[in-house]
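Continuing the batch. This is chain 6 of the set; chains 1 through 5 are on the previous pages. Same settings as before, nothing changed between runs. Recording input and output for traceability.
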Amino acid sequence: PPRSTLSSSSAASDVYKRQGGFGADGVVHYNPTNGEDHTTFLALDENALYVAGMSNDGSGYHGCVLKINRTTGALFPGFGVNGLLDYGAGQAHDVAVDDTSLYVVNSNSGPDRVMKFNKETGAIVPGFGTDGVVTIDAGRIVVDGNYLFVADHDVAKLDKVSGALVPVFGTGGVVAVDAPNWIGVDQNRLYAAYADPIPGPWYLEAFDKASGEAIPGFNQDGGSTLAEGLVGAVTMTDQAVFIGGFDRSLPANDQQWRVEKRESAGGGLRQEFGVDGALSVNPGPGMDSFADCAADGQWIYIFGTDNNAGDAQWRVEKRNIDTGEV
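Output for chain 6:
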C-alpha cells in the first residue's frame, strides 16, 4: 500500500491508506516508534480528528497529538511537524478543541497542566495562564463556549482565554463530584461518568453547568449491567450521551472495547445501538486498550490500541451513530 513516513527520525511512524474511504475499511493505524506507544484521547472539529497519545523511543514518554483528515485519514502537514505535534516530555491525559485552539491535559513528574495550542500550527498560546499553561489538578477536559471544564477528583470551570477559575460555578469555581472518570456537556448540563467499584458497573450523573447543582431524578435506573468495566470516555450529541471504555468480562488476558449510548434527558440506554444499547469491539486477543470516542451528526469515532502487529499500535474506527455498525 502507499506509505508516508512522517519524520526522518522515526522511520516506524507510518499511516496506511488502502482505499478511497477513511483509512483501510474504516481504520487508520499509526505507529510512532518501535517502543511502547499509547493512545489516550481524541477530539474533532469540522475537518479533522486530533488524536492524543504518548510515544516512547526508549528515552521516556513524549506527549504528542496527531491531526487526521476526518474524511480520508490523511495527515495535515502544516500542523506540528508533518501532522504530528510533539510537545516534549509528559503524558497526554485528554484533549479538546474549539474554533481556534487545541487544549491538552498533560502530566509529567510534577503537577498536572492544561496547555493551549494554536490548532492550525501547533504553536503554544502564551496568553493562557502562564506562557500557555495552567497548573491545576486535571485528568479530563471539555471546552464549552467561553469556558473549560476540567475534572480530576472534582470538576473545575475555567475561563478559556485567561485560564482563571469561574467563581459562580460551585464553590470558587469547583464542584465536588464522585471521582469522575469522564465528563461531557450539552446545552444546559454537565455529565460525569465513572465506574463503581473499579472495575465495575458504569454510572452517569448530570449537573447544571452554570451553577454546578445536581439534576434531580437523573438516571434513576442506576448503573449498567457490565460487571467488570472501566470508563474511558464520554461524548455528546443533541439527544444522546456515549460512554466508552474497557470491558474485562472476557477470559483472562482478553480485554475488549465497550461503548454505551444513553438518553441525555434521563440517562437510559438507547436499545437500537449495538446490542441493547451497548457495542462491544474486540480487535484481537490480548489486552486491547480503549482510549476515546467522538461523535458528529452521522458517525461515532472510537480509538485505542491493539496488539495485532506484535507491539502496541494505534487503531481508529468510524461507526454509524445510530446502530454502531462500521
